[in-house]
Amino acid sequence: MQIPPNRDGRLPHGFMYLRLLDLRGFEEAMLDFAEECEELQLLIDKVVEYNCRQVEAVLPTAGRIVRFGDDLGMQNGLAIGPEKWRRYLKPAFQNIYALVKDTGRYVYMHTDGMIYEIMPDLVECGVDMINPQFRANGLDNLERVCKGKIPINLDLDRQLFPFATPAQLDDHVREAIERLYLPQGGLGIYLEIGQEVPLENIDALLEAVSKYQYYKG
């Protein structure tokens, strides 16, 4: 297994779960998880071994925070369900992230989709901050699962950005911060702004983040 020589301090996006889907194809991978075939664990072990070698390769050039990205959820949950995720993939992430944690570094993880059910498990795997999606997980779930427990860098509702009014976007930013803020910290705000977002809405988002960044409750 050859490690690309130009690693930039992070693994490529989709390094574990999405890698399994790429290798097997979505339908075959879902059948593997449903049937719990022995070959699935063999494949997972091979991907973990490769990823561990990649982590060892990037650590010499990594900073204090090592970033990972793997989209674990769909719009309405995990395709394989939380129990199978805990059985097959939680140990995989634990083994990979342990290499980072053993050096005293922090683990930052981006993941798209509805993943609030396994966010505490990701923390147990060694993740220090999670980058979840507002729309997929819902503010009620994020407040219940994360507030005061799990540091997050919240990906605000990018599907709202092109169509909302500036006032609605201000409300969106304010509500997220008011609901999730704690004096001790643990909340970041992330904006992914596509080219379809009007300039006035971009201005409104940036102004709202600037206005509420010093919110104190």
TrEMBL record:
<protein>
    <recommendedName>
        <fullName>Uroporphyrinogen decarboxylase (URO-D) domain-containing protein</fullName>
    </recommendedName>
</protein>
<dbReference type="GO" id="GO:0004853">
    <property type="term" value="F:uroporphyrinogen decarboxylase activity"/>
</dbReference>
<feature type="domain" description="Uroporphyrinogen decarboxylase (URO-D)">
    <location>
        <begin position="24"/>
        <end position="212"/>
    </location>
</feature>
<dbReference type="InterPro" id="IPR052024">
    <property type="entry name" value="Methanogen_methyltrans"/>
</dbReference>
<dbReference type="Pfam" id="PF01208">
    <property type="entry name" value="URO-D"/>
</dbReference>
<dbReference type="InterPro" id="IPR038071">
    <property type="entry name" value="UROD/MetE-like_sf"/>
</dbReference>
<dbReference type="GO" id="GO:0006779">
    <property type="term" value="P:porphyrin-containing compound biosynthetic process"/>
</dbReference>
<dbReference type="InterPro" id="IPR000257">
    <property type="entry name" value="Uroporphyrinogen_deCOase"/>
</dbReference>
